[in-house]
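For the sake of transparency, this paper describes our internal protein records without simplification. Because each token names a local backbone shape, the row as a whole describes the fold. One such record is reproduced below, unchanged from the form in which we store it.
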Amino acid sequence: VPHAARAAGTVCSSNRVAPFVPCHRVVAAGGLGGYAYGLETKIARLRESGCIVYPGGTLLEASWAAGRLAAFIERTRDLGFNGIEVSDGTVDMPADARRDAILRAREAGLCVVTEVGRKDPDRQPTAGEMAERLRADLDLGVTWVTIEARESGRGTGVFDAKDFPAEKRAAYHD
């Protein structure tokens, strides 16, 4: 059903009892993504459900670019998140800096989810380059590796402007 998630979120945001979290958004552009019970409660409910809860990778990228990676990892853990996303979809993070971010996050006890690829389809690595990055991340002990994409799938990451996987990026042969 189109827009059902938003409808469920709207109903739950007006409910005085917080039995569950209806969607994956912990933080949205305007705040908590419509969850009325606060960040700590939202994180706790998701963790109780067995979810890996983490802030988006762009926040880590911005923190790294500002020289505040260690503080970001500490704050992430202190807020109750049990995971963190390491990505470089919007910044040019060298491989050694990515490795450092992964290792620091693991040392902090966080489950590490990484993302390969770029938001800008004109700067998207080849499938082979993404596979190499994926392997390197897994060798560092990350839990999950995802491929850059947006919910809309339009012209971002591995998708073309018509919502289809871009063929030149989708084919990979080892």
